[in-house]
Amino acid sequence: MATQHSRSAARAMMAPAVVLLLGWMLIPLGMTLYFSFKKYLPLRGGDLGWVGFENYERFVSSSAFWPSVQATLIIVGGVLAITVTLGILFALLLDQPMWGQGVVRILVIAPFFVMPTVSALVWKNMFMDPNNGLFAHLWRFFGADPVVWLTEAPLFSIVLIVSWQWLPFATLILLTAIQSLDGEQLEAAEMDGAPTIKRFWYIILPHLSRAITIVILIQTIFLLSIFAEIFVTTGGAFGTKTLTYLIYQRVLESQNVGLGSAGGVYAIILANIVAIFLMRIVGKNLDA
Fold this sequence. Notes:
By secondary structure, the protein is mainly α. Helices cover 75% and strands 3% of the residues. Strands 1-2 form a two-stranded antiparallel sheet.
């Protein structure tokens, strides 16, 4: 049993790391709040003084704000739907005994370790190119005109690219959950004559509920700040401008640090709303 002295020593040893972590989080947040109330144009006059909530009003009243929020939520929702659905399917397949099972699992997980910019470039040039891409050759083989993916179906293209990156993560988490399932339950259900679909619906899927909520929570946190894939493929055009990309345009392209900082605060608020909503779902599943 820990004594008061040992607990004090543990707190003292943890204090530097906690202070460093808080500084790492609070200093950028404080600077963002500070600049959000100022008109700061680095290349066009510098610090032009306090403007109050003018930056917040300008950012939210911009014609690009709500479309960027909508694009962000569509991408997040689309990626979650694909990765969770296919993740469950791949996890079930990888749990089955097969030749070269270890190699197959490594190959399935490998895309998660590819950099987002590299992944986006591969999909853009090798798969979705309307002239020499793999999809274009397949379309011509079947006698159809190639699809200009990043122009005609831009949001779907982004969702497809990002889903390919995050599918291994979902598969890995769900495979781990499936392997923790008590096999005797499935054997008993099979002996009682329960068909495969009912065994999946009433035994496997409820067992995966916690893993699914964790996958949704973690992926959502990262997907809300998606940027590299859009920057490399569409450059924010054709309705693919997310909230993060809009902030980038305001800060770097327009050189308006104050307006971009106000957008950053909105992004933080949106992320926290989604996180609180998801944490309630996770909490209910973990308590179940």
